[in-house]
Amino acid sequence: MTKPPAWRRYLRFWRSNIAEDVDDELRFHVEMRVQEYLARGMSEYEARRAVTARLGDVDAARAECVELGKVRETHARNADLLDGVRADVRYALRSLGRAPGWTAVALLTIALGVGATTTVFSVADTLLVRPFPYPGASRVYMARRQFGVNGATVPVGLPFGMANEWRAHARTIEAATLVGSAGSSRLSAGADTITVQVARVDPYFLAFAGARPLAGRAPRANEIHDDGPGAILLTEDFWRREYGASTDVVGRTMRLGDRSVSIAGVVPASLSIPDFRAERADVLELVSPSAMINGPVLVRLAPGVSPARATAELDAIMQHANLRDVRPVPMAMPLRLTRPQDWLAIRQPLVMLTGAVALLLLVACTNIAHLLLARGATRQRELAVRHALGAGRPRLLRQLVTESLLLAVLGGALASFVGWAGLRLLRALRPAGRDFVALSYVSTDHRLLSIAAVIAIVCGLAIGLLAALRIAHRDLGASLRAGASSMLVAGRRLRSSLVVAEVALSATLLVGALLLIHAVFDLQRADLGFDARGLYGVSLSMPRGMPPAERTAAVEGLRDRLAAAPGVSSAIQTGRVPGGPGFTAIAAYETPEHPLSPQEANGGTELYDVPPEYFAMMRMPLLAGRTFDGGSRAANEVVVSRSLARQISPDGNVVGRRFRNAVSRSRGPDEPWQTVIGIVPDVITSLTSHDVDAQLYRPLVTTGPGSGGNASLLVRLSGPDAVTRLRQLVAPASPGNTPAEIVNVRDRIEASLAEPLFVMRILAAFAALGVALAAIGLFGVISYSVGQRTREIGVRMTLGATRASIARLVIGDGIRLALAGVVIGLLGAGAATRLVQNLLYGVSRFDPFSFGLGSVVLLAVAFVACVVPTLRATGVDPVVAVRAE
Question: Structure pTM?
């Protein structure tokens, strides 16, 4: 092999060959010393022996020199690279500073696009992707019984002690633990009382979750008994907030509700209960593994075991278990293993918003790509000059990518702030109710910064690299020879395509938002089946142990007091307030002619106990028959809603017919028949319910045995501050010390719109932001187009073109781009709106109003975006324009 010349080894482009350099150096010193000894009269043999003796271990010296050379070259190369990066960053900062308007728009686009994406992705990561950091989280399931009611899945508790049975006999699971939410309670020590959120767990929970107490210890299973002293574990946040992280609280005896408990320890903040419908727990109450707790059992499957196989084994064990409350059920309640996050109430809206924010991120990325290409087009001459002065294409490419990364880093820092603010705003504005409690679990921790940084840098690097490759791979020599106008023409088609893509993505977002707006507007105008104006519900909690006669007298006295008050048109006692809590019966309705089996139950019926004047007060029209009279209770007469009438008989003509619930009959053979005496309209108590629940009205019994419970009143009151006036009327006559709950019936029913309203507002914000970004992109394209065609416009005006014709030319370009994007976007919306189909509540996903209004809005925005470029084009001086080239 021919030895490369020495000069080539010392060129940094090829990098030096350190080993050969060291060999040359050592060889030089050996030969010089040999020549010296030869000059002294030694023979060549003696001279080389003397040199070897003098120099010692040449191989060791060679190895050390090679290693030192490699280290020195690495340091030099790193220093050169660092110097180059510093120079690139300084140049990028100066370059961005020379175009403050362009830089501000680019940073704002990144901050808003990536910030919104960070907010939604943080929520999705917490609630859907990594909700519970348990060991083997992918194998953790919730075991529940469940059944369907009116298309909805209703969970049912497991037999008490089931977790113990599965731990003892199941081979398809590694572990099982019992969990449940107990709601709020009062934790007291002496005179100090705190309201806390309580979750109940068995002693196996901490080991199941892979958590260890920060202080104290977790009691073992044999130390917890139903009739023994209670034990609780404090959560870290509560411990630090209320007790200043003092370990002295461990072992202290307190009262939780009406039970004496001791504080066994403190669990870390990372430990969470798999129930997103309850507020974060402050206290974990330890219960016996066989305690009566209505909650799911968490199981961790053994490796390689499928959920279907585990379900079959666990169900078989449950059917044969000898437990105190295992009894036949009148309907199918199969055991199901589901992921904890599958029971998230806002799962579908969250998935939909994740898809929507992904579209918004695409709009932002497209806008950034357009801005980079447009800026690169204006810098083509600068790049050509630098290339002519010796800068290679890789060097130019590195400079352009550095600018993109710097832009992404600065935008990502702003996006982190936007994401942090978005999360705080999301948590602050979340609607009240159990469905949105899950948003309180989302925290602004380090994951927020990491998500924002990853999204911003990946997007900036990808877009910047593509834009830089396109710019740097052009014919830079031709760009240097050509004029400014000809340089700008080359990228116009690509930039126009990007704007069309922006408009299309924005159209998809806008149509989805308009569909939800239309759906919510229709829901707010829905016919409830009764007149809810001025209708208020008063719910009373009666003292336990109150004699029935006193209870009846107290409720009737309050009713009469309210009926006589100014502004009150009527006041009645009722079994429940519409829209409030009540009893829903699982039913399979049979008639004497058509008997049914209890297992044929396929829906639920809302039960109302009402007085005869209820229907008149509610202003519910009587569709057929009559209402109650004094003998209706003894005759077992009922009034049914229209949907229930159709369940009893397909023709709906059920007045005078007898029926009964086959599910109730399964409890005993003497279930009486009920006779229908009237039919009323269906009452809507949830505006977002896809199926209207059937209603069954029974005569209200106001006297009879009972020592406690609740009582409800309905009041129709006109005038301002109705709730305050009612509270003043009720307080003096309210039995017991518990204040009455007073609600506006219409407001309570409209509260069911919280989910679609919340989603609609967020999606509308995304759509507005997407339309704004598309308008910015369209404005940029038309502005650059006017700049490119300045000479052409001057020539046209010289030849007689009017300003109106020039305006039509410029606006026509913008409208054509917008129209192309709208057409593509509407086609995409037709497919993408499947994500919001279940939130439309009766509005077609191809609603012509939403599609038409979305098109008009986008075209109007496109027209506005073309106004400034049009004014610039019509203000061109023909003489100056022709001379410009």
Answer: 0.74
